[in-house]
Write a structure and sequence with these properties.
Length: about 180
């Protein structure tokens, strides 16, 4: 069997269909196949334009997109520096073991270092032992003292429309 030829490259709107396919594969792996609402059109819009707020790298194996790293720029007020938030890292099961996940993360690390940014961060499900082991082998540390919070759907809408409920003014900090 001939070894596969693979490469990592920036993704653009033209890759939206492949990115959507991989997002759906990831959602199935994470036991939430019906949770994906994003369409290829949504992803094309997010990855396009003059100043996209979402970025991605894709891994191609023999010319076919087999993995992705979807990310955006974050900021640490404590460090006073930007970083990268890795939203999704995924490699299709049939292409695992080729080094694609490591290569995608290495590309993100290179972007952070090139820009003088402080870190690359992401979430991983607590039951995903293969991913946790992979990240630890790369030197990533688990932030035990932090928990993720999310405001979405009806509670997000309710808060957005509630306005200032206090007896003073509401400045941009929310205080």
């Amino acid at each position: 069997m001939t070894p596969a030829h693979w490469s990592i490259r920036p993704a653009g709107p033209q890759d939206a269909g492949d990115v959507e396919r991989l997002v759906r594969e990831l959602a199935t792996y994470e036991r939430a196949p019906d949770a994906v609402m994003a369409t290829a059109a949504d992803l094309a819009t997010a990855l396009g334009g003059d100043h996209p707020l979402v970025h991605a790298f894709v891994a191609e194996v023999d010319g076919r997109v087999a993995g992705m790293a979807v990310w955006f720029v974050s900021f640490s007020t404590w460090e006073g520096k930007h970083g990268i938030w890795l939203e999704d890292l995924y490699v299709s099961p049939e292409h695992r073991g080729l080094g694609l996940g490591r290569a995608l993360l290495a590309r993100l690390a290179a972007v952070a270092v090139e820009h003088g940014w402080a870190r690359v961060e992401w979430n991983v499900l607590d039951w995903n032992d293969p991913a946790i082991g992979f990240y630890r082998r790369l030197g990533a540390e688990r932030l035990e003292d932090w928990t993720v919070h999310r405001l979405s759907d009806a509670p997000l809408q309710a808060l957005a429309t509630s306005g200032n409920t206090g007896n003073g003014r509401c400045d941009e900090s929310g205080e």
